[in-house]
Specification:
It is built from 5 helices and no strands. The chain is mainly alpha-helical. Helix 4 packs antiparallel against helix 5.
């Protein structure tokens, strides 16, 4: 079965719309992931063993929340991912065995 060239744009439109919607939508999942990672880092003892990374993650999350409130969804998404990554590092550092 061959698709006529005149129908190709109609096949591409739904995909393009989905891409635009996903970029324009609030980064709910990313914000949630960052919050959960920060909580997991706290539970792992990052307040004691990885203070710098935990503080950075919390600061990034606040920055992401501000961007979200300002409707800057792309920026908020990016910063939330950074916050999550920093929190995961804090958790990893907190779980690292200490030297005797």
């Amino acid at each position: 079965m061959t698709i006529s060239r005149k129908f190709i744009p109609f096949l591409l439109i739904p995909g393009a719309l989905m891409l635009l919607i996903s970029c324009a939508a609030a980064p709910v999942q990313e914000m949630s992931d960052a919050r959960q990672a920060i909580q997991a880092a706290r539970e792992a003892g990052a307040q004691t063993h990885a203070v710098s990374s935990l503080n950075k993650a919390e600061t990034l999350l606040k920055e992401a929340e501000t961007s979200l409130e300002n409707g800057e969804y792309k920026k908020a998404r990016s910063i939330a991912v950074q916050a999550r990554n920093e929190a995961l590092q804090a958790q990893k550092d907190a779980n690292r065995p200490t030297s005797p």
